[in-house]
Amino acid sequence: MVKKEEGNSIEKIVSLCKRRGFIFPGSEIYGGLANSFDYGPLGVELKNNIKNAWWKRFVHQRDDMVGIDAALIMNPKVWESSGHLKNFSDPLVECKKCHHRFREDQLESKNCPDCKGELMSAKQFNLMLKTFLGPVENDESIVYFRPETAQAMFVDFKNVLDTTRRKLPFGIAQIGKAFRNEITPGNFIFRTREFEQMEIEYFIKEEEWEKVFEMWRKEMQLWMTDVLGLKEKDIHELDIPDGERAHYSKKTIDFEYDFPFGRKELYGLAYRTDFDLKNHFKEAPYENIELKEKLYPHVVEPTWGVDRSVLAVLCNAYAEEDERIVLKLKPSLAPYKIAVFPLLKNKPELVEKAKEVYKMLKKDFVVIFDERGNIGKRYYSQDEIGTPFCVTIDFDSLEKNDVTIRDRDTMKQERIKIEDLVLFLNNKLQ
Ligand code: ATP
């Protein structure tokens, strides 16, 4: 019997992720490393499903988008021009007593949250993660891991334009790692120092920005509800007021999600004006052939955190029912789509038939074979990792060439002919 409590605590999600191989603490056998995490065998599938759905929807299925995959470490001049070296900082305060450090804008009172001691006044702390490139460690060899993927889309703008001959409006998309020396990482994979982003820089004429901003606002909403399956009631828009936006932004909306630890930023949408292209290119990089004029395109930037997407999807899917824990993932996101079982492990004819079905399904789907324990335990185990369908081969299957298929959410079972199985699953798993 599953013990029920009100709401889903983050501890339950963390525990399931560890227990079932979604997400492990990074470098665990050495005591971990300051809030770093590794995606395990199921986590990488879930994460890839999210990234692939994003690429398909926003790159492959659109006519106005191309992708890139840029280097993580860029010439430090990039960060000088973009303003990150000067402005990409958070206000850091230190406790006079215990010397713990905090982000001032996240504190609820003027005292230390750990020991209630007095806090020193805030200093700006730059979040860029530094390292040295090459064998000499001096000021000239200092480089930074990118704190956002966005700058590569600006720096590569001309190359993309020259090689693809795009006309405004069009976008450049990228999925990749970003690094920030966060003062207080935490809440599992919500805030880490190494994370992944999916970003689009959408290039437009200045006068179009409001229309385009609205288009991306709707696209982001649809992504959250239709692709990730998040509930509308858990999603909120926050218009960031003047003075609180990033240094490059004229308008920003944060999409916030009701995580178990509170309402927090999931994604952002910003109008970056022509700030970045102007800083990187001395000459206007875009030529309007019809009007014979050169111009700096303006930019609307929708940005998605991959890890925060994974976390929101897990929190949304986690459910405790009378006899089971179940991850009600959208089938398109589930790590395994189907589990195949022989009813009994010690009957070679059942195992052989089940392996045949497994091999057949593996050509089209991500499938797992399980013969351990009894059927009830196997269902339980698959429910907990969100597998939408379980297929069981029993003695009747040998004569009638059919199987029992069990639906994760309704727990209903039906008999299906093996020859109809692929079509049936294709329809259900779309
Ligand atoms: P926050 O206010 O939470 O620090 P931010 O406003 O600085 O976030 P952006 O610069 O807009 O974040 O980054 C774009 C997206 O990247 C965020 O919406 C989030 O999904 C993700 N992201 C940013 N920082 C982190 C982090 N430290 N760990 C995980 N994901 C992050």
What is the structure about, briefly put?
The protein is α+β, with helices and mostly antiparallel strands and 430 residues long. 31% of the residues lie in helices and 29% in strands.
Provide an overview of this structure.
The protein has helices at 10-20, 41-60, 76-82, 84-87, 150-155, 157-164, 209-227, 275-280, 306-317, 348-362, 375-385, 395-400, 421-428; strands at 23-25, 37-39, 65-67, 73-74, 89-94, 101-103, 123-126, 129-132, 142-145, 170-179, 194-204, 235-239, 251-259, 262-273, 286-288, 293-295, 298-305, 318-321, 324-327, 338-342, 367-369, 389-393, 402-407, 413-417. A hairpin with a 2-residue loop joins strand 13 (251-259) and strand 14 (262-273). It starts with 9 loop residues before the first helix and ends with a helix. Helices cover 31% and strands 29% of the residues. The chain is built from 13 helices and 24 strands. It folds into two domains: 10-75 and 142-316, BirA Bifunctional Protein, domain 2; 338-428, Rossmann fold, CATH 3.40.50. The chain has 430 residues and is α+β, with helices and mostly antiparallel strands. The structure holds adenosine-5'-triphosphate (ATP). Adenosine-5'-triphosphate (ATP) binds next to strand 11, strand 14, strand 17 and helix 9. The site of adenosine-5'-triphosphate has 15 residues, from strand 11, strand 14, strand 17 and helix 9.
Which CATH architecture of the largest domain? 2-Layer Sandwich
Quickly name the level 1 CATH class of the largest domain.
Alpha Beta
Strand order of the largest sheet: 3-10-11-17-14-13-12
Structural class: alpha+beta
- Number of helical elements: 13
Average predicted local confidence, pLDDT: 95
CATH level 4 superfamily of the largest domain = Bira Bifunctional Protein, Domain 2
The residue fraction in helices comes out at 25-40%
When the domains are counted, the total is 2
- Separation, N- and C-terminal Cα atoms: 33 Å
Q: State the CATH topology of the largest domain.
A: BirA Bifunctional Protein, domain 2
Oligomer: single chain
- Approximate shape: globular
Give a count of the beta strands, DSSP E runs of length 2 or more.
24
Query: Which small compounds were modeled alongside the protein?
Result: adenosine-5'-triphosphate
Q: Over the alpha carbons, how many angstroms does the gyration radius reach?
A: 25 Å
The main β sheet shows up as: 7 strands, mixed
Low-confidence stretches: none
| Strand proportion | 25-35%
